[in-house]
Amino acid sequence: MGVPVTDPYHRGSQDIQPHRYPAPLDALEVALTDDVLVVHGGTPLEGRIRVRGAKNLVSKAMVAALLGDSPSRLYDLPKIRDVEVVRGLLGVHGVKVTDGDEDGALVLDPANVESASTDQINVHAGSSRIPILFCGPLLHRLGHAFIPDLGGCHIGPRPIDFHLQALREFGATVDKQPEGLHLSAPNGLHGTKFALPYPSVGATEQVLLTAVMAEGVTELRNAAVEPEIVDLICVLQKMGAIIKVHTDRVIEIQGVPKLHGYSHRPIPDRIEAASWAAAALATRGHVEVLGAEQADMMTFLNIFRSVGGEYEVTDARPPRLNDPGQEGGIRFWHPGGELKSVALETDVHPGFMTDWQQPLVVALTQARGLSIVHETVYEQRLGYTEALNSMGANIQIYRDCLGGTPCRFGRRDFKHSAVIAGPSKLHAADLVIPDLRAGFSHLIAALAAEGTSRVYGVDLINRGYEDFEAKLADLGAHVERP
Ligand code: EPU
After folding, report:
1. The Enolpyruvate transferase domain covers which part of the protein (predicted)?
2. What's the gap in Å between 259 CA and the centre of ligand 1?
3. CA distance 73 to 106
């Protein structure tokens, strides 16, 4: 019998079952749920919001602080659940985390790193995927590590086989137990030559966080090179690491015996910025996203323009005498008229991010013609389209690799391509949020639809979107807690 897919440490295509998206709530459940947002749709979002440091960088930079022998300072952190989880996990390992001298700043002091009990660590079980990145730093600091059951979004099986393979290459031993992973490095960690089967973001980060203090040189081939990874490399370099990024996805790391604390202002959250851009387009609105960075969003901006959306990049101007300066950002708007259909496929950087896909698909329901989306990063990230169809969208999902190059999922039984026929008039519905990005797309759909929708499970959105309810209010959305 195969190992059930709920075992996050197991990899085997025969064991990967289709992920189930939440069914609509029945009347009793509805009555019992208070985690609901009532959305009166049909009003364009108009106004200005600001994005802070990227969720998918700040959590990793916090883990990197474990490697230093002096305090680190991280700025502009968003107030989101993932940051709290990592803060808690660092805390039980003896890292003193305190608020810094400005809003959104943290000081992380690793002077007294210590072992934590399984019970202390397990408090954070199932809450995030970041704990897997504690392996290398804890092995360096303590010689052993315990990693609880992982959480994160339910967007497919999300195995960690590349992580474990890499850690073994460095010389770690991994003991999988039902309560989690026990790791040790009886002979220390040593540099290695290693090629990832796929340019995984997390596995690349795992290698970086382990190799920087491993003895000797590590060469990682087929590495992910997302802007968040480059920013993590900047953090590690500030700490004293020696890392070369070669062409063709090769990263070379020369291990050093000692690292110190860093001071870092992270890159802005390009996923959140694109989510608000998609919301502006879907609701025929106009949203300025302060902090959004053009260079990190080029692929998104190209698609946004191809669909018929307009944007303008505002460059930042530093403050001078008699001039308070200006924060940079990007203004996104619907210029009126009809949107155009597009064909796109998600991919690793510099491709179209998988996390941009769900919010944009809502806008694509309003485009004339057939749009095609080929999801090549996660095998089960289109199930949320069922909810959009319940609101009047016309989206069919297919097992074939449509409209792009054949991907890893083409010969397997995953519906990973979508054809969106539009424009469709969206109407209100009761929706249940399945995961973070799909959840935001549900919210956008409810905002774009005529009538009053009830969106259940909205608290999940707080995992990755800071103050989203306040931002919705700033943009003139008609939403309320019942
Ligand atoms: N994969 C494996 N084995 C592994 C690791 C990954 O098969 O050991 C596969 C995955 O199953 C997936 C692909 O490789 O099919 C890519 O996964 P990757 O490791 O790149 O993803 P991740 O590190 O788990 C991060 C972000 C995701 C984002 C992806 C892709 C964080 C905390 N999460 O996940 O963000 O979608 O990279 O860019 O950084 C989100 O923010 O909502 C989110 C899901």
Report:
1. 40-472
2. 27
3. 6
Residue whose token pair is 């030559």 = 193
| Ligand 1 atom at minimum distance from 199 CA | 20
CATH class label, 55-264: alpha beta
- What confidence tier does 31 reach under pLDDT thresholds 50, 70, 90? very low
For ligand 1, say whether the CB of 424 is within 6 Å of any of its atoms. Answer: no
161 lines ligand 1 (CB under 6 A): yes
Pairing of strands 217-221, 193-195: parallel
Instruction: Report the catalytic residues.
Output: 153
Q: Which residue has the higher pLDDT, 124 or 192?
A: 192
Q: pLDDT tens across 400-456, in order? A: 999 778 899 987 889 999 999 999 999 999 999 999 999 999 999 999 999 999 999
Q: Which amino acid is at 170?
A: F
- Verify whether ligand 1 is closer than 6 Å to residue 201 (CB atom): yes
Q: Cite the annotated binding site for phosphoenolpyruvate by residue number.
A: 55-56
CATH, domain 28-51+268-319+326-480, list 3.65.10.10, 3.10.20.580, 3.50.50.60, 3.40.50.970: 3.65.10.10
How many Cβ atoms from other residues are within 10 Å of residue 47's Cβ? 16
Cβ(172) – ligand 1 distance below 6 Å: no
Answer yes or no: same fold for 28-51+268-319+326-480 and 55-264: yes
Token pair listed for 398: 């297919």
User: Per residue in 93-129, pLDDT tens?
Assistant: 999 999 999 999 999 999 999 888 888 888 887 778 8
What are the boundaries of each domain within the chain?
28-51+268-319+326-480, 55-264
Atom of ligand 1 nearest to the CA of 153: 44
Render pLDDT for 144-169 as a digit per residue (tens, 0 to 9).
999 988 866 666 667 899 999 999 99
Output the CA 209–ligand 1 centroid distance in Å. Answer: 16
Q: Which residue's CA is minimally distant from atom 7 of ligand 1?
A: 159
Q: What distance in angstroms lies between residue 200's CA and the mean position of ligand 1's atoms? A: 6
The pick from 19, 55, 56, 463 for probing ligand 1's pocket by mutation, whose C-beta has the most ligand atoms within 8 angstroms, reads: 56
Report whether 408 contacts 421 (CB < 8 A): no
Task: Give pLDDT tens digits for 208-252.
Answer: 999 999 999 999 999 999 999 999 999 999 999 999 999 999 999
Residue 143 has what DSSP assignment? Answer: S
Which helix (H) or strand (E) element contains residue 163? helix 161-170
The C-alpha atoms of residue 381 and residue 156 are separated, in whole angstroms, by 7
